[in-house]
Every structure is written in C-alpha cells, then in structure tokens.
Amino acid sequence: MKKLIVILLLAVVALAAHAAGPRQYYDYPDATRLRDGSRMLIYDNLSGNRNITGAKLKEELSSSPVVLHAVATPGSSPLKKQAGAADGPYVRQVELRDSTGTITMWINASGQMIFGRPAPLSVVSVSPANGAIDVPTSTIPVVTLNKSTADVTISSLYISGSGVVPVGYDYTSFTVWAIPVPLAPNTTYTIKFERQMIVQTDGETTSSCGTAMTDVSGICTSTFTTAP
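Structure for Ig-like domain-containing protein, as requested:
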C-alpha cells in the first residue's frame, strides 16, 4: 500500500512539474512589435541572407503592389493601380468577386467601372447566314463579335481551304471582320472560327460560338452555298 501511495505521489509531482514547465515554440508563435529600429534576419534563395530593419520592411511594402500597408496606415494618399503601357483597354485592373468566385464588378485599363459579370466573347452574327443558298459570288463573308478583340488580326478566322486573313473594318472597336475571299459559283463554303483561339479581351475564361455558328469540336462553323 505504501508503495502505491509513493508511486501516485511521484506521478502527481511529475505531472505538476510538466504543467509548470515553459511552453514550447510550437505552442504559440513569438510575437513582438516591429519598430523601425528593430532588425530581423531572413533568408531566401534569390537574395540570400538579409538583415532587414522594420523601417526598410515598411518601405518595401509601401512601394510594392500590395495595398495592405496603405489600407492599414492612416493617411490622405490615394490608393493607386495604374495600367501598364502594354495593357489593352479591356485588361482588368481591379475586380470584386462574390463568395462563389464570380466577378461582380471590375475596372478595366481604360478606367471604366463595370458592374455585372464579364460576358464571354462570342459570335453575334455571320453573313451569309449559316445554311444560306444561292449566295451571290460577289458577297464578302462577314463575322460579327459581341465585343472588341485585343488584336487587329485574327488568324483563327478563315474560310476552309483559304489562307485569306480577315480584315476588321470597324477600326475603332474591331468587332466586325470581313473575309475578302473570291467565291466560285455553285460552291459550298465553310467559315471556321477556332473558339479557343478567340482573344479574351475581358480576361474571361470561356468563349462561345453563339447561335449564329455551330460549335463543332471547339470550332465555330457556318456554311453557305453560292448561286450557279
């Protein structure tokens, strides 16, 4: 009985000593105020060792694209996000998303604030219409998109068997593209537009053939037949 009491006492003492011991580093992170004169040593694979001060760290944060410093620090300086020189007018500079990740508002490189969801770039209409017959040989096929493309040429838009590059004749928006290919009489032609190659002007991740053209394995197609 005495041995049992001694063992129990030793267990209680050991447990108390363990509970009263210092907490380990993994119990809670060390934290202290980062003053301008404070220093910390960091290492990364690119710059190696850096003994950086609190003031220098704040300077680097404020000069980077990160807006956390500007938001957290009181001041009258405006938050700024400027488009790059090579950014097209549709490149998004700021965007807000809902809980599902859907964009609900954005500001493009032109400074325009737009509410709603970016519409996929798609084909609005094609002329001659899909399935048209007795089309005059003088006709110039035209494809119209729902919004401007980023480039002035579209190499993925063509008439099957022809290497003619389409021409955008609405030079302010580039939504209408003509394919000036010579047409032979009594011949069926197929206009093809590679859907995945459609330039995504708003940064959206999908594209669509719309209802004007038929999606055939990712290629928007439309056929017409010329008159005899």
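Residues 8-13 have pLDDT under 50 and may be disordered.
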